[in-house]
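Appendix B, record 7
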Amino acid sequence: TAGQQARSILPFEPFLYSEQAPNLPRPYVKWSCEPARAEDVPAALARAFFTAMQPPRGPTFVSVPVDDWDRLCTPLPHREVTITVAGDPSMLARAAAMLSAARRPVIVVGASVARDGAWQEVIALAERHQAGVWVSPLSSRNSFPEQHPLFAGFLPADREQIVARLEGCDLILVLGAPVFTYHVGGHGPHVPKDASLVQLIDDPAAAARAAVGLSIVTDLKLGIRALLAVQAPARPPPAVPARAPRVPPDRLTDRYLLQQIAALRPPDSIVMEEAPSSRGPMHDYLPMLEPDSFYTCASGGLGHGLPAAVGVALARSDRKVIALLGDGSAMYSIQGLWSAA
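Structure tokens (predicted):
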């Protein structure tokens, strides 16, 4: 919520008022409004809450004129709204059959796997099908243990390179990620020739804009459990990618620093990262091994990392939070050090 000037003086464009308060946060919120009457504020707040909690969860905005808080309103009745969406059973059965029939399937995991708590389900699915697991481009959460024998690596945000990395597979199962997030211009196909794609996603908009494949809107935990209901044929394990060599302590580089953090961090610690120039070395030398242990910005804004690390530390006070920040990123919100202290 945000304050608005008193209704009694709004017609006169008073100091510190907003002429179009609901439009101010758009398009960065899922829903916004300024109630027409003080009596409508409780209903607006309830709708904002229920909308924010629908997958994919996101912010909503309600502008409340300051004198509304002094008005008596009728209490709203208690009600509940579901926040879990189960996928179409027939489509999930079709996806499961495609997965079982594939000769060389691969899995691409994204942030919604972590948000829906499907860490163990993804591991079970990958192991059952002996499928290599890639992290989707620019994923903001960790969704698979990065030293697991089936971990294949990180997909770049580049169309041609994604196709090259996935070459040879005949089915791409995208779990909780867009198809795909790109950062540089590209042309040509989105997947290798003769490869099929199935996407399980909690975001109807991401399903609608996918360029190829079968998309199923579903809670990830429920959707992956449906795929686990079907048996898998015997397959040889995929080739294990080479791991990065150990960095000697002769120079202080980002690779050496990240390697040492990996060696010394508590097992249940959380990494909050905003150091994009060192993200490649972080992938190589600071693997995420436990669920809910990595967060980064889901968009391209700068200055998110330091205040986000403080927020994660407040929410997860029982776990050590490690903030990895580039100098440019820290510059945008260096005052967050005061809050952290």
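Remarks on this record: The chain has a mean pLDDT of 95. Residues 2-70 form a domain with the Rossmann fold fold (CATH 3.40.50.970).
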